[in-house]
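Appendix B. Chain record.
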Amino acid sequence: MISSRALFASFLVAFGCSPGGNSGAPGAAFGLSGGAAGAPSISLGTGGTGASAASPGSPCTPGTLACYCPDGTASGTQTCDAQGSLSVCDCPFQAVTNQPSSSGTPTALCPALQGKATCSAKSYASQQVPSSILFVVDRSGSMDCNAPPVQTVQSCEQAALRQDPNQPSRWETTVKALNDSFTGLSGSSASIGLSLFSNDGNCGVDATPVVDLAPTSAVQVNALSEAMAAAKPAGGTPIVGAVVLAYQHLHEQLHAPGNRYVVLITDGEESCGTKGDEADTADLEAARNLLLNTEVEKARDANIRTFVIGAPGSEGARGFLSELAFQGGTARTPSCLHGGATEGDCHFDLTQGDFAQVLKDTLGKIGGKALGCEFQAPSDGRGLVNVQMSQKGGAPVCMPQVAGACDGTGSGWQFAKTAAGATDETRVVLCGAACDQATADPTTVVDVILGCDSIR
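Structure tokens predicted for this chain:
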């Protein structure tokens, strides 16, 4: 744990800046240009789904460079132009698939593909792309208040104390919902970890999670539960510092598998900025702008997306939290409201209704989205691909290829996209109702069928 003043000096040192001279300007504290001691020398936000292996803080050497991909290996390539700017990291996703049956034909085909004389179908059981999920949870003093309607937000703002000791606090409700979520992720393809803020009763945050990322075994779930039980609400709300360091940690964990997510849960507004002074509104605004305009984009380009949950008490931060979710690549709907100073609905806004039940439901939805509907796929280079899905050992069902956006308006599948927007035939993504159906049932098996014209 570190104090608020030590916190911001440590930002400057850890990320390759000097605390002296002019580096005290807002934003210098949060530059993610370098790693902590002993960490690989990588730069977050050089573009694409990967991160440059070039030395941070200096122009790149013109030519082709290696870059880190979402699977944690430096298997991607990117180019450095004459101006020292790096292109998007091109990360070939190597599919690991089962071999086709010895007969060369699948053991079961969905009805539309059965009896086709013009194609020779070969079936591959497609592995789900794993996820790494770092929960970043607000344990500031206001989390000790009861949730509405037991205690109003205004009452909590006047005194961050529980009004009814016989009713659960916001923190206790959050702990229970998170424990249920952790248990629900057990045995899945996800690795999960936990960071808490503040960690010193003031404005402290730490680049090292209280529970580091690990597969969702019984041991990991127990460690997460124990960490939540040991923590007590206290201190301010350093949202920006906590999220930026979460990005840094996920990025430095080069073997954090697959797609990577930060799940932010907060009941308030940024209150620490770069100076730890809640009264310095200009500094608070500068910190928020740095996160929204710079750091979240760098994270997204490095395949780190940001879910945002606003608990009761976060009403005044709706605009900020909504924009963070939108820029973080997890907007609830494509047409959600964002960009406003005080309003927005791109995040999960839990400021109304039964907080306990809505939080539980929301974490379930986020868990399903983070586990994802993205599957590895072999490619024959001809685009002769079909996807079928079976559940509970039943007969497979054919899914059509979706031509439009994979935004919930169509049900089926489509090829994934690279960071540059090109079609990636080594990954397929389930869309709309097909995705909802797959994530709701852990028995789901997705098969990629090669050799036949795609069903549309």
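Further analysis of this model is presented in Appendix C.
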